[in-house]
Amino acid sequence: MNGFSTRAIHAGQAFDPTTGAVIPPVYQTSTFVQKSVGDLREGYEYTRGTNPTRDALQELIADLDGGNHGFSFASGLAAEDAILRALLQPGDHVLMGNDVYGGTHRLVNQILAAWGVELSTVEMSDVEAVRSAIKSNTKMLWVETPSNPLMKISDIEAVAAVGHKSNLTVVVDNTFATPALQTPLALGADVVVYSATKYLGGHSDVLGGLVVTSSEEIAQKVGFIQFAAGAVSAPWEVFLTIRGIKTLNIRMKEHSANATAVAQALVDHPAIERVYYPGLEDHPGHDVAAKQMKNFGGMVSIALKGGAAAAKAFAESTELFQLAESLGGVESLVNYPAMMTHASVAGTELEVPDNIIRLSVGIEDGDDLVADVLNALEQVSQA
User: Fold this and answer.
1) Is 291 a catalytic residue?
2) Contact 240, 201 (CB under 8 A)
3) pLDDT grade, residue 382 (50/70/90)?
4) Relative orientation angle of helices 307-315 and 366-382, to the nearest 10 degrees
5) Which of 5, 78, 109, 130 could disulfide-link to 249, CB 3.0 to 4.6 Å?
6) DSSP of 133-149, one letter per residue?
7) Catalytic residue among 48, 243, 246, 253
8) Is 372 a catalytic residue?
């Protein structure tokens, strides 16, 4: 199987050999009966360790990312925590982009820091800045591209080369792009992480996190944390994620097309200071994004000229774009990062300007979405 959509539908999804059911069963069980003491059926003992439904998702995501090992967790942050705890020790330093999901920064800065992990941030789209920021105790480069919420683009291949020259582990958060648009392992990354809650699940009805790697050493360490700490995804959440992934490729095409239409409609609007979307040719990361991505994704951020008041008014004036946390569902969402997804980084180097709005552009009719944002801007201008 070579085509992405074919693999998304079939990898890890063999029909049930007993009944012939096209969809494999959901193994909604906590434990498994043993033949005798220590004699397990197909290696299954306890769902925290292994479960056939979770195994299917792990095989699926590894296949889509071109990796050898996949791991499924209860949330994106649980997946990130497993990577960090598996691969770092007290005294180690993490170099992270200066525009990432607020929860990622909070996890390292407020939780792992107490354990002795050091964190600093850098303009990850500037390869020379990354090279200069590496210290003697740096062990990991944490890359998020496109970044959240300012849509910065990092050259994964170039950053990975810099990291590997210093024997660093390169982790890429691929949540915004998904494997349908970008495969970081093929560009030199060591680990890929996702919040499966977003585009992979795709329907705003599941929490999940995924990790993919081709390194046996990393896989053993992450797998041990998955089992020993136990933040695994439950069978039903796994089933929902698999169901969502089956339509990922076609959804990402629609998300990208609609996001492009929204970005182009706003780029010259008198109320807009700037549109952040890598599909625009004047985006500083456009050429790199075009090189490493198949399309530009469904996330668009905008800066309003009217400051915080205008931004909040806009967020409360849309109709199809619903005001909510999260992203990547079939429905369009609007978010005010400074007080929502990135409130935890207020006062830090990652603080988001208060005139920024983040749009998760769904797969509704594109003309309706464009009309919705233009109407909201009209309401803001009349207020």
Assistant:
1) no
2) yes
3) confident
4) 130
5) 5
6) H--TTEEEEEEESS-TT
7) 48
8) no
Instruction: Determine the pLDDT at residue 225.
Output: 98
Residue where one domain finishes, among candidates 245, 267, 284: 245
Based on the fold, state whether residues 275 and 168 are members of the same structural domain: no
The structure's pTM equals: 0.97
| Choice among 55, 81, 173, 372 that is catalytic | 173
Q: Write out the two tokens for 350.
A: 């990652």
Polymer length in residues for the chain? 383
101 is catalytic: yes
Q: How far apart are CA 24 and CA 102, in angstroms?
A: 36
Residue 306, both tokens: 């009217």
- My answer on whether 12 and 41 are in the same domain is yes
Q: Are residues 289 and 205 in the same domain?
A: no
Q: Are strands 138-144 and 322-323 parallel, antiparallel or unpaired?
A: unpaired
pLDDT of residue 266: 98
User: Are 78 and 180 in a shared domain?
Assistant: yes
Same domain, residue pair 40 and 115: yes
Residue 161 belongs to domain spanning = 4-245
How many structural domains are present in the chain?
2
How is residue 381 written in tokens? 């201008």
Which one of the listed residues 54, 85, 198, 358 is annotated catalytic? 198
**Residue 251 annotated to the active site:** no
Nearest CA-CA partner of 294 in 155, 177, 143: 177
Residue of 7, 54, 63, 101 with catalytic role: 101
Do 221 and 353 lie in a common domain?
no
383 pLDDT higher than 80: no
Per residue in 35-83, pLDDT tens? Answer: 999 999 999 999 999 999 999 999 999 999 999 999 999 999 999 999 9
Kindly state the average pLDDT of the residues 92-108: 97
Amino acid symbol at 21: A
